[in-house]
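Suppose a colleague, Dr. K., hands you the sequence of a protein chain of 318 amino acids and asks what its three-dimensional shape might be. Before reaching for any lab equipment, you can write down a predicted structure in token form. Begin with the sequence itself:
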Amino acid sequence: MADPEGRSCPLAYRYSPAALCREVSQVSEDVLYIIGGLYGNPFALDEIERMALAEEHQGQRVKLVFNGDFNWFNASDTLFRQINNRVLDHTVTLGNVDFELATPSAGAGCGCAYPDYVDQGVVERSNRIMERLQALAGEHPDVQKQLSGLPRYRCLMFGGLNILVLHGDPESLAGWGLAHESFVAGNDLALAEWFRESDADVMVSTHTCLPVLWSGMVDERFRVVANNGSAGMGNLLSDPRGLITRLGFTSPLAEPVTGIEHRGLNISLMPVSYDLEAWLPQFDRLWPDGSPAAVSYRNRIISGTSLSPVDIVFPSNS
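The predicted structure, expressed as tokens, is then:
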């Protein structure tokens, strides 16, 4: 019996960890912002651009890299085009949402590959959100064409380190191996193998919506996993701010939610203090009370999650 829609992983999502850093692109900028889970929030994007501009005023060149799911709540023609036009001006990799908007997979639903511990109601609502977005994307074939040409991952050389930018985990675009729940369960053995096979120093992910900052030694090399959760909605207890991952050899201008420093490299989960009062009325017009996005996400947009900053930091068990 086939898995229900929204829980399966299409074959096109799969890749080999050993292939992920075979091609490496050199980064000339001083700072990387890696932005996952924007979810169609234009005010979060405004704030991220403001943050980058503030750093540039201090002499730091900032590169914006989007690692997927920049679409989701942007269910109007105007906002759909606005978000995609702005994001596609930067360096981008696909998320499962963007993949399914460009090239829908039979039986994939939202393409989230939700694990068993996620409630079926969440899965079904996500599938309904995707159906609405796919119908909208069909009215914008030029955007679909651009999305279809994007890679599923990138490996960037930054300060002599391999920075692996992906959406899910090192085996799948929608993998949950770098999810908060996986680290709670203890994921060091899988991580070590993924780092060995990929030759990455830092893995930067998103997809699973809850943030993680893990660090440890693998084969006498210091390695890091950063999962920013979501740039476009709250990630922490009573905190509506989004998060992005910042990498730089200078300290961030603002206080990070959490971060580590190793040999001069700062890896930080930075808060995105966007204008919630401006975004919420627009969200409510697009997704009124009782709609799938309102039921699944409105409370989180306002109040964040149950996690504290301490809950998202995972030192190696090895």
